[in-house]
Design a protein that fits this description.
By secondary structure, this protein is α/β, with parallel strands linked by helices. Helices cover 27% and strands 22% of the residues. The strands form 5 sheets. A 7-stranded parallel sheet has the order 8-12-7-4-5-6-14, sandwiched between helices. The protein is globular. Belongs to the ETF alpha-subunit/FixB family. This is Putative electron transfer flavoprotein alpha-subunit.
Length: 389
């Protein structure tokens, strides 16, 4: 099975620990490099050295929102990009909006500032802008990096650049210590310029695998700009919760999916309702009439980006794996330990799908009763997420 990740063939370079490397479809190693498959080598990974121990003379600031205590892949790539272009006298400061429980040193940060009051469910764009501006004023960074996404970071970066009248580059697809580049003219040409003050990085412009670690110092930094009604013209109307079954699969953050190994569909649907998860299915299950065509996930169905994806009784044909390639954590429940889905999964449960569905539904229902409906719903996702972190 071809496990190479599909990439944009028009993008000429990506930033790696070895510098800018030209992307060639079908090649995953640097040109001329030889790789060896040594049994057990993955279990003998050597400790990584600190990127720098010199006294910092300047700062690079990275800002991003966390989701359930961790950064997503796009934010990790942005942090890695700053760490890779930092020289020996430069420290990388990570500013996280929301709770953060990950290892910032392993991600390349030298200092960590966490603002837990800005969690994803709170809409406070002016307070976030004030917090970013206050942090930038305190550390006077040479450059500020944010992931250019549609979930708050891209908007925050643009408003910060406008507020301080700083140079900015958006949708950056190529970066090194001297320049950035982005597509123009309907993605038919590449424009480059010197590194601006604010850099909004597009996805997959940086390889997040770092050969070093950062200092990982957690800084207690107090921001007093959050106050009730302080946003003035902006009001947070709260979150309107809807049944997960009403969500389009492309928007769902938690999906349970059924394959040919699921025979009791009502029991599977009860589990989805108990967990508060959206329902997906493999092509085989859809062709058998167990689910409607809009539930099909795969190359001929829908491509999903869920944080947690649980596959019950799905063998994992290449078309289905293509549909879940962007999912953060994949849990597979299958009797066949050698099924292709097991190679993609972060956690594989070798068990009967129906028995597992019944046991999980019972456990989730008990958790709901003990902790309350809302808390259990969040906990069900957090447990799956935390087990794989």
């Amino acid at each position: 099975m071809n496990t190479l990740k599909r990439i944009d063939p028009r993008r000429p370079f990506t930033l790696t620990a070895q510098g800018l490397k030209r992307i060639t479809l079908g090649v995953t190693a640097a040109a001329g490099a030889m790789t060896y498959n040594v049994p057990g080598a993955a279990h003998r990974e050597q400790p990584k050295s600190r990127r720098t121990t010199a006294t910092p003379q300047r700062t690079l600031l990275v800002a991003a929102h966390a989701e359930r205590g961790a950064l997503d892949d796009h934010a990790r790539q942005t942090l890695a990009g700053a760490a890779l272009i930092a020289d020996a006298s430069t420290e990388v400061v990570l500013l996280v909006f929301g709770e953060f429980n990950d290892d910032c040193a392993a991600l390349g940060a030298d200092k960590l500032i966490v603002l837990p009051m800005f969690e994803r469910r709170t809409f406070a764009p002016l307070d976030e802008l004030n917090a970013l501006a206050a942090c930038a004023a305190a550390y006077a960074p040479a450059h500020v990096f944010l992931p250019d996404n549609a979930t708050g970071d891209g908007d925050l970066g643009r408003r910060y650049a406008a507020a301080v009248d700083a140079s900015v580059a958006t949708h950056v697809v190529e970066i090194d210590a001297a320049h950035v580049a982005a597509y123009i003219h309907a993605n038919t040409a590449l424009a480059s310029r010197a590194l601006p003050h604010v850099v909004l990085l597009a996805p997959n412009a940086v390889d997040p695998k770092l050969p070093f670690v950062g200092a990982g110092e957690r800084v207690e930094w107090r921001f007093d700009g959050v106050a009730a009604g302080a946003s003035g013209v902006i009001r947070d109307l709260g979150i309107e919760e809807i049944d997960a079954a009403q969500l389009a699969l492309e928007e769902a953050d938690f999906i349970v999916s059924a394959g040919n190994g699921v025979s009791d569909v009502p029991a599977f649907e009860r589990l989805a309702a108990t967990l508060g998860a959206a329902i997906g299915a493999s092509r085989v299950a859809v062709d058998d009439g167990k689910f409607t065509r809009d539930k099909q996930i795969g190359a001929t169905g829908k491509t999903v980006e869920a944080s947690v994806y649980i596959a019950f009784g799905i063998s994992g044909a290449v078309q289905h794996l293509q549909g879940i390639k962007d999912c953060r954590h994949v849990i597979a429940v299958n009797l066949d330990a050698s099924a292709p889905i097991a190679k993609r999964a972060n956690l594989t449960v070798i068990a009967d799908a129906q028995e597992t569905i019944a046991a999980l539904d019972e456990a989730a229902a008990a958790a709901r009763t003990a902790r309350g409906t809302g808390a259990a719903l969040l906990n069900s996702t957090a447990v799956a997420d935390g087990a794989l972190a």
